[in-house]
Design brief:
With 201 residues, this protein is of the alpha/beta class. The protein contains 8 helices and 6 strands, in the order E-H-E-H-E-H-H-E-H-E-H-H-E-H. Keywords: ATP-binding, NAD, Nucleotide-binding, Nucleotidyltransferase, Pyridine nucleotide biosynthesis, Transferase.
């Protein structure tokens, strides 16, 4: 894991990043700015069990591509989950929390994940380990209205104007942050690569 000090505000941004793209960069930049983070850990996972990745690039390739695209020195690209046999987000957050007392972590995720968040293993455990920042993504702006997670933790939601205090709150606490959105998606990029005739200029 990247080095951190007690009291630091750190975002945890996990994904398969197959491949990483400017939409991921935008989420990272918004999180850094709106949450007032000292660091953002860009955590490249072995794979998401809920997603059909098609052909999953090697972890090494995805880490290297992520390092090439990561926006600035506060973003730390890491693949510690694979090295420690962690396969689920709930496991990862418990692992991070146990080894970094006094650090103010926030789980950062794109709004496109919110719809299916309740299908993640021990999703309530995730919501009750660290505060969560949900960053707007195309087609998912209203996801928080229908999401099972959003309904279950409605009373824990704070206004996005107060997003800067999220790292200091005890979980469960979350916010939905609107902002610039990129239409890019990893699945669309993979599909375009597989069939260039269907890509748009």
């Amino acid at each position: 894991m990247p080095h951190v000090e007690k009291g630091m505000r750190v975002g945890l941004f996990g994904g398969s990043f197959n491949p990483p793209h400017q939409g991921h960069v935008l989420v990272a930049e918004i999180a850094l700015r709106r949450l007032g983070l000292d660091q953002l850990w860009w955590m490249v996972t072995p794979g998401n069990p809920l997603k059909n990745h098609g052909e999953l690039a090697t972890l090494e390739e995805r880490v290297e591509l992520s390092r090439q695209i990561a926006p600035g020195p506060r973003v730390k690209v890491t693949a510690f989950e694979a090295a420690n046999g962690l396969h689920y987000t709930a496991q990862t957050l418990a692992f991070v929390k146990a080894r970094n007392p006094g650090v103010r972590f926030v789980w950062v995720m794109g709004a496109d994940n919110l719809k299916y968040f309740h299908l993640w293993q021990n999703w309530r455990g995730i919501a009750e380990t660290f505060p969560i920042a949900v960053i707007d993504r195309p087609g998912a702006t209203l996801a928080y209205l229908s999401s099972k997670m959003a309904k279950a933790y409605d009373q824990a939601r704070i206004d996005e104007d107060d997003a800067g205090v999220l790292p200091f709150l005890k979980a469960p606490a979350w916010t939905f942050i609107h902002g610039p959105r990129s239409p890019l998606s990893s699945s669309a990029i993979r599909q375009a690569r597989a069939d260039p005739s269907n890509s748009t200029s």
